[in-house]
Model the fold of this input.
Amino acid sequence: MEATHQPSLLEVQRGIQSAEIRRGLSRAHVYNLEGDLVAARLAVFHTIALAGISIRFAKLSPTAISFLGESGAFASLRSALAPLNVEVTVQDDCAMVEVAAVNIRDEEGLLAQVLARAFASGIQILHIGDSHDRVFFVVHEADAERLKAALDAAKEVRHAD
Amino acid sequence: MPIKVMKFGGTSVATPEMRETAAYRVISAKEQGYRPVVVVSAIGRKGAPYATDTLIGLLREIDPDVSPDPRELDLIMACGEILSAVVFAHTLKTLGLPARAFRGGQAGILTDRAFGSARITGLDPVGILSALEEGAIPVVCGFQGVYLGPDAAPTGELTTLGRGGSDTTASAIGIAVRAEAIEIFTDVDGVKTADPDYVPHAPTLSRVSYEEVAEMAHLGAKVVHPRAAEIAMRAGVPLWIKRTDSDDRGTEVVSNTTGALRNMTGVTHTGKLIYLQFNLSGLTDAARSSIQGEFFTLLGENGINLFMVNVSPESAGFAVSREQFPEVRDLLNGLVIPIDEELFILQVGPESVEVTSQARLMARLKAPTRIKAELTEGCTMMSLIGRPAIGSPGLFANLLQVLADEKIPVLQTSDSELSVSVLIPESEIRRAVLVAHQRFGLGEAN
Done:
């Protein structure tokens, strides 16, 4: 009888597995949301939906909304949102540097350590998102390789066993 | 003859009657031509005499102020599964089936040294395979393994795999012995579209992808542990979630290419969180970046776990667990950050003595700029899972509208390839799950 004994098929080990770059993104920042914040946010999201614009990784702050899309996806965003009397900035030529680490939110301080590394690089971070197994940073495309290098160095960051 | 791994959770082995029911499941598998390998959890749930929490209590009640050593904690926790495996093996024997109980280490499960949350680094199932060759049914203790590194005791250190560890054991063994299927027997019918405590009529999904079920589990669904789904996915071994005392089909977990077609798979909830939002408006890019770098460094060095991080030109925000919040407040409240010629002082929540006295001291040098963090206590995360729906135009609008209609505030969102999550008040979670389940058509999911 033959048995399998391949650690690679078992569990992904703790710590950072990879830092990858995904290019061709745009990032939008819609700000100066005034009055009833809930209503203002809804108006922005409904208007975007009606314009058929697909957005990802939306983030809320007290007077603004930020989100991402494929490069060029926000060409009509400003005109679509014009009736809402909000300010809009769109940054094309963005890239996402995505760091994969299993259970990153639950490994003691690991997510904060990766964030600290990213900010210590001095590169302007435009947008951040996290899930249970990754954190990503959106930066100007020209900065992506440099941030990846800084985060590759963070692969040494490990949960203290 | 094909091998089938059958894992029975705590409630499935809680009483002699339940153990007999589970044992008949094993007999039935054998009659169908399988060679069963059984994995068991500790007997019963919280409060039961041999449940994991009860065993931990034996140490904690000695002196609640002295934390048990993680190594000793693992040793005592593992007793629950050892007892359960031996009792179950003997139950099989009384029904005429030769069986052999194995500790995790005896079953060949090797782990790293992280007591309490060890990860499997290898599995050599020679003992299990020998037992099968001899016609015995291996009954393996879930949730445990052995660390054999250079700093371990000569015979190794017993480790436990953390919450849901028995599911992980079952999947790892399933791969190692090249099982035809892994069956997780529990006290619910299968993977539900929502927590049945919140949505009593939530349907059971007949088929779901490994990725979907792992995402649901990561985001709060409790029926199967995400590590188990991820391990099974890597080898493509079919995983089934079934109810021990029912002949219903349960949920089949397979690769996403053969998954059912639907927009949304489920709604989950998890976490007892506190959201901190720092007001950084009016600062230069450099100052904002330095301040964020400082507090993330401090939080990382002190092992603080973060959720739903956001940075924008106006603010920075993140959630922390309620458990870790006092430490976060101690670390950040009154923290002075010098940047070039400027002094900044963090204030977490309402004005406190720490901040005012620090600010007064600093004023002798230079009046510091206060960076205030608004606190929202009592938060939790609700998530919608479903690959087709994520990224489609209107998802955020629909989700926020559904919650706004119920006057449920949304503090933050985050999303992945498979899910979108919102941070909302914990007091509203039951209503939020119910309405999201209804408005996103999950009652018709199958």
